[in-house]
Amino acid sequence: MSQKRLKGTETVGVHSLDHFALTVPDLEEARRFFEAFGLEAKEGEGTLELYTFGSHHMWARLQHGPAKRLHYLSFAAYAEDLSHFEERLGKLGVERVDGPQGALDKSGIWFRDLNGTPVQIRVGCKKTPDTKQAIPPAQGPAAVRNAPLRGFLPPVRPSRLSHILLLVPDVPAAVAFYESTLGLRLSDKSGDVVAFTHAMHGSDHHLIAFARSNGTGLHHSSWDVPTIDDIGRGAGQMQDAGYEHGWGVGRHVLGSNYFYYARDPWGSYAEYSFDIDYIPEGTVWEPTSPPEDNSFYLWGPNPPEDFTHNYECSEWPIAPKLG
């Protein structure tokens, strides 16, 4: 992935979600879940770091805490843009803060978003794809058996982190804040219930999404897999490992991706995602805002009743369905 902004690109914005960080009450339980999901979990000093197989990049950092909580978000930007972010945040009156305890590093720029979540902008390589993933043909050739025997394939292993969805009290305010500070751009939304934002330097339909809740939290992390078959096999993989609660297989409307959500031990989700819409750099993307009942999912089973419940604020009622 590229380390410098493309020549002629004058606008400033982050290009990637570098990693996200959580606190969880049981690191060993987290290891079991994410290894079953198909990620590589490596122990640090009191932490658990999540990698995709074949990649040296750390996508998530977990550390022990009294409950599952979103700890911080780290975004990557081009080196020549860091001073522009400093100037922008100063003009917006956004106060700089120190990096939180347990952060991977304290470099770059740290501040808190409007809901108090620590946010880092650091120099780093671009992790978002530069082109849309090539899709293998769905139809197999004639005169051969196209499905392998069950159990004769290796485990489903995601290739990269695609996006995360944050639960927030005010979706339009969160979108406006992340647009003004990080340079993210609105892709689509459904009223004030859910909104999806992408990075301007070429990214999936959403890098960060926001859904309305009574408080803040991480609803899910989404991980890219190469085929729709991997979505179905991933669902079975998690169920065989004892993680039977989830949602899918289905297909979303906004973003278009096929999905299966596996619920983790603390009520949030890890999503297998395939064939999400892609917004190339320089594309004029016109956001839409379809009604809630026509924008959540194109097909699939009904979601669990508590799918949008914010378990980081468990005393609060179930939030509205995601867009």
Biggest β-sheet strands, sense, barrel: 9 strands, mixed
Number of E-type strands? 18
CATH class: Alpha Beta
Instruction: State mean pLDDT (0 to 100 scale).
Output: 92
SSE order, one letter for each helix or strand = EHEEEEHEEEHEEEEEHEEEEE
Main-sheet strand order equals 9-10-12-8-13-16-15-14-18
- Assign the CATH architecture: Roll
Report strand %. Answer: 25-35%
Total number of helices: 4
Q: In CATH terms, what is the fold-level topology?
A: 2,3-Dihydroxybiphenyl 1,2-Dioxygenase, domain 1
Helix amount: 10-25%
From the spread of the alpha carbons, the general shape counts as: globular
Protein name: VOC family protein
Domain VOC: 16-124, 160-275
Keywords: Metal-binding
Pfam families: Glyoxalase (PF00903)
What is the secondary structure topology, with strand pairs?
Blueprint: E1 16-24, H1 27-37, E2 40-43, E3 47-51, E4 58-64, E5 69-77, H2 82-92, E6 109-112, E7 118-123, E8 160-168, H3 171-182, E9 185-190, E10 194-198, E11 203-204, E12 208-212, E13 217-224, H4 228-240, E14 246-252, E15 258-263, E16 269-274, E17 278-279, E18 297-299
Parallel strand pairs: 1-4, 5-7, 8-12, 13-16
Antiparallel strand pairs: 1-5, 2-3, 3-4, 6-7, 8-13, 9-10, 10-12, 11-17, 14-15, 14-18, 15-16
Describe this structure in words.
With about 325 residues, the protein is an alpha+beta fold. It has a single domain (about 15-130, about 160-315), classed as Roll (2,3-Dihydroxybiphenyl 1,2-Dioxygenase, domain 1). About 15% of the residues lie in helices and about 30% in strands. It has 4 helices and 18 strands. It has helices at about 25-35, 80-90, 170-180, 230-240; strands at about 15-25, 40-45, 45-50, 60-65, 70-75, 110, 120-125, 160-170, 185-190, 195-200, 205, 210, 215-225, 245-250, 260-265, 270-275, 280, 295-300. The strands form 3 sheets. A 9-stranded mixed β-sheet has the order 9-10-12-8-13-16-15-14-18, covered by helices on one side. It has a 7-stranded mixed β-sheet with strand order 2-3-4-1-5-7-6, with helices on one face. A hairpin with a 3-residue loop joins strand 9 (about 185-190) and strand 10. It starts with 15 loop residues before the first strand and ends in a 24-residue tail after the last strand. Residues about 1-10 and about 315-323 have low confidence and may be disordered.
